[in-house]
Design a protein that fits this description.
The chain has 3 helices and 32 strands. The protein is mostly beta strands. The chain folds into 2 domains: about 15-335, Tachylectin-2, Chain A; about 340-460, Jelly Rolls. The strands form 6 sheets. Strands 1, 2, 3, 4, 18, 19, 20, 21 and 22 form a 9-stranded mixed β-sheet that branches. It has a 5-stranded mixed β-sheet with strand order 13-17-16-15-14, with no helix packed on it. It has a 5-stranded antiparallel β-sheet with strand order 30-29-28-23-32. Strand 26 (about 385-390) and strand 27 form a beta hairpin. The protein is globular.
Length: about 450
């Protein structure tokens, strides 16, 4: 058994996982598509895994899309249920630039049948070429996010009709975000560049924005449905992922909550949201919550991935986060693990989970030590009332502020070389990779000062 490969997280069977490409939930079945390289010098393609009746038990399927016809890579995009089957929107990369293309499979239920031993490309997906012609002086379209559109963006009670796309266009060094619309998902019209009304929380003229995503959530405080933009900024070769809450009308995003970090750990990037087949989610709960996956890497650079210990010993690199259930409360995102995690941890060989309900006055603290296979400390999570810190003992701890009104609870999940921390009732998350010698043998917790642990739960062998 590998000490580093997670049992509950999505990884590439072999190769470098670069990002989630798109996620579709069909009833109780999850389809996760991911962008990966079979090797550092090989072009990116789309892998595919499936989980039936669980958020955590992944089965490898045939690759969905591979480079063809002069392409040097196919990169991430979006997945939607359409025309009785499934549409993949992906970024096609050639020597002359990038474009957004569509592929379609007629039968979602048969996608993981007749899996080849080498997981070579599936014959189910048929390509239908470019979906966006160069227009309005815009070129090099890429990184599409496709979601259902509204019949009326000003009266959302009328429901959805047609499709909305966010995409990136223009030079790599100075990309622009654009909004597109379609009635059928096949032919698209460029509506224009995305405009922010109000302070987005970052400098749109300086920051390079990539991998835009959008989800719709009903705020539990005022009952209104808002748009939540998920944006990844490239800063000095590192990715920083933010979210901003507002209302999108046409091409104008009216900011309600300026951008905040989605995750404050060392390794979180380029999240992907989940689309659904009709009937999977009840209409009265359609916007109450959403699911997202992030990439557990601080950068999309394969050179860094190939330096991981598990690459040299086991031939794989990077992972996706656990699926997260996200809700909106008072203009802020709250993230918790998908339901069923404790039971899933119990079914693994080595994963560990600790959850504590605590009282932690500022100045006191709860300290959780993650132990390696020798019983030595490999990482430390410290909750000091107003701050939570994840320290991998490498000289660069990750930290996040907490608020007095946040609940003093902590959940720590260790799965192979991944560690995810949820605190404050989901107000704060920290995701990181680490490599404990001999795996994780346990989580040792103590209270200091006036801090108290009222109750705690442990799962895992």
């Amino acid at each position: 058994m590998s000490a580093f490969r997670p049992e509950l997280h999505v990884t590439a069977e072999q190769g470098i996982l670069e990002a989630a490409a798109g996620v579709l939930r069909d009833g109780d079945t999850w389809h996760v598509f991911y962008q990966y390289q079979p090797g550092p010098a090989e072009p990116s393609r789309w892998g595919h895994v499936l989980s039936e009746g669980s958020h955590f038990d992944w089965v490898e399927c045939n690759d969905a899309i591979v480079p063809a016809g002069g392409e040097t890579a196919v990169r991430a995009g979006s997945v939607v249920a359409a025309r009785g089957g499934v549409d993949l929107y992906f970024t096609s990369v050639t020597a002359t630039g990038t474009s957004i293309q569509r592929a379609h499979a007629d039968d979602l239920e048969t996608l993981c049948e007749d899996v080849n031993d080498d997981y070579s490309v599936s014959s189910a997906f048929q390509r239908h070429g470019d979906v966006i012609p160069d227009s309005h002086g815009l070129t090099r379209f890429r990184s599409p996010c496709v979601v259902p559109d509204w019949q009326s963006s000003h009266d959302r009670s009328k429901g959805e009709d047609g499709w909305l796309m966010l995409a990136v266009t223009g030079p790599t060094a100075s990309p622009s975000l654009v909004v597109l619309g379609s009635s059928d998902g096949a032919a698209w019209t460029v509506e224009g560049e995305l405009i922010f009304e109000g302070d987005p929380g970052f400098d749109t003229n300086v920051e390079a924005v990539v991998a835009p995503r959008i989800i719709r959530l009903r705020d539990e405080v005022d009952g209104q449905i808002y748009d939540v933009l998920l944006l990844t900024l490239e800063r000095g070769g590192r990715d920083v992922t933010l979210y901003s809450v507002g209302l999108l009308h046409g091409t104008t995003f009216s900011v309600v909550t300026s951008a905040r970090r989605i995750d404050n750990g060392h390794d979180f990037s380029r999240p992907r949201t989940t689309n659904y087949t009709p009937g999977t989610v009840a209409e009265d709960a359609r916007y109450d919550w959403a699911f997202l996956f992030g990439s557990m890497t601080s950068s999309s650079r394969s050179t860094e991935a190939a330096s991981e210990k598990n690459w040299s010993t086991e031939g794989w690199a990077n992972a996706l986060t656990l699926p997260r259930r996200v809700t909106l409360q008072g203009g802020l995102l709250f993230q918790t693990p998908a339901p069923g995690l404790p039971e899933a941890v119990d079914e693994t060989l080595a994963a560990k989970l600790w959850t504590g309900l605590c009282e932690i006055p500022v100045g006191s603290r709860i300290v959780a030590e993650v132990l390696d296979g020798r019983g030595e400390t490999a990482a430390v999570v410290t909750h000091s009332g107003d701050t939570i810190t994840l320290d991998r003992l490498d000289g660069s701890p990750a930290a996040s502020d907490l608020h007095d009104e946040d609940e003093d609870n902590v959940t720590i999940v260790v799965d192979g070389s991944t560690i995810e921390v949820f605190a404050g009732g989901g107000a704060v998350t920290l995701s990181s990779r680490f490599w404990p010698e001999g795996g994780c043998s346990g989580i040792r917790v103590r209270a200091e000062g006036e801090a108290e642990i009222y109750s705690e739960w442990r799962r895992g062998s």
